[in-house]
Specification:
With 287 residues, the chain is of the alpha/beta class. It contains 12 helices and 8 strands. The chain has one domain: Phosphoenolpyruvate-binding domains (TIM Barrel), CATH 3.20.20.60. Strands 1-2-3-4-5-6-7-8 form an 8-stranded parallel barrel, surrounded by 5 helices.
């Protein structure tokens, strides 16, 4: 069964929502088979797949490419497309055109935008255009230059109150859910209890209505030089396993242990005889 926006909303207070950030066809197939609820095609694509230092460099076209890769898998989870930096920080007409690309061309089920009261008109316009919107409050990576880096948000009573007000506003504007990132657990808990729509936490404790992690982090698909954020938990060692597999492949290639006859194609008997004659002719020509 394909999971829809109303399905996700109805999970509130019934079942904890699972969301993963993924960027391609095989990842979407795996998430679907694992019965994950939501796939976010995140702008973290910039860092995780494209090698940029932050999310600010990824474009609508690059995001759209990966959204299509995910939806080509026809996954059961709801697919949410992250709207990248400067795709909705523009006038409403351009914002709607950008969002429509993710729905019409990318076949996403919804989009995600960062920010609270600043995005009032943006969210309202998207919802009025029948585009489901997931909000994102707290540590909003596209605002890292204004925040002075990736810092926990809502650590004072005043800032926590502002987050609370923004959360209520986002709900009022029609967002069907929201990500709470990098906020104290008690703040995330208070917001989650007050809202009628689901909250999805990342670095926000266990009292949100759901959790999200990047698939590559879950699988441990990062080199040893990469330092995990505090909220990350690795469930496998895929990076190390991949390196070892590649080393084994190289060794077998160099020692002619691969390919074997089992990995090679044979000719039919009649063609084999013709080939032997052809080889004799070639030898005559070369001599």
């Amino acid at each position: 069964m394909k999971k829809t926006v109303p399905y996700i909303v109805n999970l509130k207070n019934k079942e904890i929502i699972s969301m993963v950030t993924a960027y391609d066809y095989p990842s979407a197939k795996a998430a679907s088979e694992a019965d994950i609820d939501i796939i976010l095609v995140g702008d973290s694509l910039a860092q995780v797949v494209l090698g940029h230092e932050d999310t600010l460099s990824v474009t609508v076209e690059e995001m759209l490419h990966h959204v299509k890769a995910v939806t080509n898998a026809k996954p059961k989870p709801l697919v949410v497309a992250d709207m990248p930096y400067m795709s909705y920080h523009v006038d409403l007409a351009d914002t709607l055109r950008n969002a429509a690309k993710f729905i019409q061309i990318g076949k996403a089920d919804a989009v995600k935008v960062e920010g609270g009261s600043k995005r009032r008109e943006t969210i309202q316009a998207l919802v009025n255009a029948e585009i489901p919107v997931m909000g994102h409050l707290g540590l909003t990576p596209q605002s890292k230059n204004m925040m002075g880096g990736y810092k926990v948000q809502g650590k004072t009573l005043e800032l926590a109150k502002k987050l609370f007000e923004d959360a209520l506003l986002i709900q009022e504007l029609g967002c069907f859910s929201m990500v709470l990132e990098g906020v104290p657990s008690i703040v995330a808990e208070s917001i989650s209890e007050a809202l009628e729509i689901p909250t999805i936490g990342i670095g926000a404790g266990k009292s949100t209505d759901g959790q999200v992690l990047v698939l590559h982090d879950i699988l441990g698909m990062k080199s040893k030089e990469y330092v995990d954020a505090k909220f990350v938990k690795r469930y496998s060692k895929q990076y190390e396993d991949t390196v070892e597999a590649l080393k084994s492949y190289k060794s077998e290639v160099q020692n002619k242990k691969f390919p074997t006859e089992n990995h090679s194609y044979a000719m039919g008997a009649d063609l084999q005889e013709s080939l032997e004659e052809w080889k004799k002719e070639i030898k005559k020509i070369l001599s």
